[in-house]
Amino acid sequence: MTATTQNRTGSAGLESADTDGSAHSGGSRLRIWIDGRVVDTPDEARVSALDHGLVVGDGVFEALKVTAAGPFAVQRHLDRMTRSARALGLPDPDHQTVRSAIEAVLAGREWAEGKIRITYTGGHGPLGSQAAYGPQTLIVAAEPREVSPAITTIATAPWRRNEHGALTGVKSTSYAENVRGLAYAHHHGASEAIFLNTAGNVCEGSGTNVFCVYGDRVVTPPLSAGPLAGITRELLLEWCAIEEADLTPTEAAQADEVFLTSSMRDVQAVRRWDELEYGAPGRITTQLAAEFARHSSDLIDP
């Protein structure tokens, strides 16, 4: 690794632009399924002011990419959504209904690369933290996206993840902590914030998993460290030789390469982490990115 000290300008610049792949398209290119019907504008897709997903964040979600071949890894995302729903005490979402909604919002699309957001909440509930009454709310939305760049920069957030919390490992709609972390990263000229956990070890990004490379050895924090079980992370662990181990900030700083994974970023090399710089993309990151691209192009629903 080449490590140099770099002065921060405090200006986000180009690297503060959203890199989750969302095109912010709106209009007729955005399609939303809600209550069994498809609408083309957000104003037509309304939920109750008493929806528990709005009132207390009692809901879960999934975001998955769409390519020319179709939506990627749908079943894995549905399985994770079910695990998240069970963790919140919500009934299992109906997978076939979600799949039908995905087909509906993608029907007749004029774009190849896109994003699907699936939101599932407790539905109507009290103005407090008691259980929702239901029935549950399901929303599936799709829009085109710009493919994420191959290289990015990251910044360490000043807040810690609780690896023992009730929402650890749950992809909950209670996402304000991530919103704040991402804003911090943008303010510091980065596209992603990296959180440590309460033990002081590397945990995850606001919407990504983190990997460090030491020679030919690739390491990512274990789920016991508190990160979300990312779908791209899961597939890389199945397809490639990668270790799970706790990483201290000092150990992470000694890495030869660092990369992120997520459903929108795939395998994304890190050029700068705070003041540390890397020759990105490195050899191993390039190999793993190619391996992931090869497997994912062969298997649309691995």
UniProtKB/TrEMBL annotation:
Q: Which UniProt keywords apply?
A: Lyase, Pyridoxal phosphate
GO MF terms held by the record:
lyase activity
- What is the required cofactor set for this protein? pyridoxal 5'-phosphate
Work out whether the entry's keyword set contains Lyase.
yes
What is the top-level taxon of the source organism? Answer: Bacteria
Tagged with keyword Zinc-finger:
no
Composition bias type Polar residues, residue spans = 1-10
- Renumbered to this chain, region (Disordered) spans 1-26
Report any Pfam family annotated for this entry. Answer: Aminotran_4
Entry's family note: Belongs to the class-IV pyridoxal-phosphate-dependent aminotransferase family.
Q: Which PANTHER family match?
A: AMINO-ACID AMINOTRANSFERASE, AMINODEOXYCHORISMATE LYASE
| The protein's name | Aminodeoxychorismate lyase
